[in-house]
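Justification of resources, computational component.

The compute hours requested in this renewal are based largely on the per-chain cost of generating structure records like the one below. Each record pairs the submitted sequence with a full structure-token output. That output is archived, and it is also reused by downstream analysis tasks.
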Amino acid sequence: MAIETPPTSAPAAASSASVSAPPRLSGRARLVLFVLCAAQFMVALDFSVLNVALPVLGKDLGLSTTGLQWAVTAFALPSGGFLLLFGRIADLYGRRRLFLVGLTVFGASSLLATLAWDPASFLAGRALQGLGAAVIVPTGMSLLTTTFPEGPLRDRALGISGTLLSLGFTVGMVAGGVLTETLGWRSTMGLLAVASAVVLTLAPKVLAESRTTDRPRLDVPGAVSVTGGLLALVYALSTAAERGFGGVDVLVTLALGVVLLSAFVVVESRSAAPLVSLPMLRRRTVAFGNLGGLVTFSMMSTVVFVLTLYLQEVLDLSPFATGLVFGVQGVMSVVAGMYAPKLIGRIGARRTLALSLIGQGLFIGVLLGLGPESGVWLATAAVSVASMFHLGAIIAYGLTVTSGVPNEEQGLATGLVTTTQQVGLTVGIPLLGVLATTQDTLFDGVRTVVAVAGAVLLAAGAAVAAGLRRS
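The structure output for this chain reads:
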């Protein structure tokens, strides 16, 4: 594949060109980037497009409140639990091959969810969607990082991917409401089926196979322990988001997750061909990069969640007006995606990650100025600017974790990146939601969550800055 870069005569000139002149992509490289980004956007869309449709869906299929919770959990369990495993399988047996399998599973299961005739068929479709997403996300990311070499080209590619990832969540929130009101809830799942068919048609024509040169045995004990541990952890946190941490099933699965993940560390330390190389986890770039990713996803998703409650239940805004607020947030994320790679080219991914975490913390702290009767404009401005820093953190943490990792381990590295993303999206709302429910009023709960999220982001920014300075 031809990827064109500006010609230079010396290393210094190359460094200058990477800052002053944007990298150029060949036509084929643009097609590759389009296919991979479209797949990531499609999965991000699936995280949010169904939320608005849940009440209507529940009445149509006869889903109880518990069943509606499982409409979300059925997707979250496999999409979070199998990321590391499929990322490593892709390294060994072919990233392109597994990517196409993931697209096929995702498209077929979206069609099943669209045509669902009872709760069981719908939940089966959601679970298979999650399994397809667990294949698409790490393989798509590793295809991207192995296709575009480190430097301005990868910065730009990950910038576009991160922008579309953030935009997918926002578009899903708006599109879900519009589609449900005009065409019904089934159209939200039908949209995903059509999108996956389009990507699956293009992908075989533009993607080249990518895999490791050697073929070590798959670490089965490691795969079983880490997958079981992640499944238990995601289940516990997803269930706690609805019912709190007092349930026996939540406590048992949370403890089981901790035990299995601890066993995974022991297994990996003794394995001749580990699923996850422990020396990789000891890299400062991997450890602190994933810390930044975990905090940025968990805190920002929680702030968006409580702001939705604040705008609709405290200020009595309509769902449409609330969607417009987050539409502005989405536009600002696109703007950030245009400029974040340039900032990374000037100061580096590590400094950009620390700066982005601190910027998010500061502007989320501005939300403490919200009032019980007014604050729409303040909320719109503060969350939009915070989202720009959030997008910068997404791009920077992906670059930080994958930089310096050999191609044969890119599936593993990107599997860690995407696992951190999924766990972050799952862990924030149940943990901070407990703080919101212990307050006297919803408004007090929103202020508490905002204060804690801002403080955690500032602390993480300082920790990342200190930890990566010595890397």
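The radius of gyration is 21 Å. The mean pLDDT is 78.
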